[in-house]
User: Fold this.
Amino acid sequence: MLLNYNCLIGWYTTGLARYHEDIQEYLDEVDSDLVILYDRCAATRVDSMVEINSTGKPSIRNHIHIDFYSVFGKPMVQTTIFKSRYRILKFDKGSKVALADSTRD
Assistant:
């Protein structure tokens, strides 16, 4: 597959479900879209553009990828840039704050 873009963005596209063996519960509940795509390609033996690094984090081969979930989750972004106008790290909250800032003069 050929992508015509050098930079790709998404929301929670590189997150990993982490399972705690001792308490037998998930700490982070779901895998991201890229992890799921990688797993499904591997299960069906289809070549995937997604690679998984040694820490388990997915990336898109030969492309810059920005996961806005990671960006908006940083304390500096929440408190300094967006002045704590969102407390919950959800797509609808972060996008509303970012779009509101983009319309300011």
The helical segments are 33-43, 68-72, 75-81, 91-102. Residues 91-102 form the longest helix (12 residues). The beta strands are 7-10, 18-20, 25-28, 50-52, 58-60, 64-67. The longest strand covers residues 7-10.
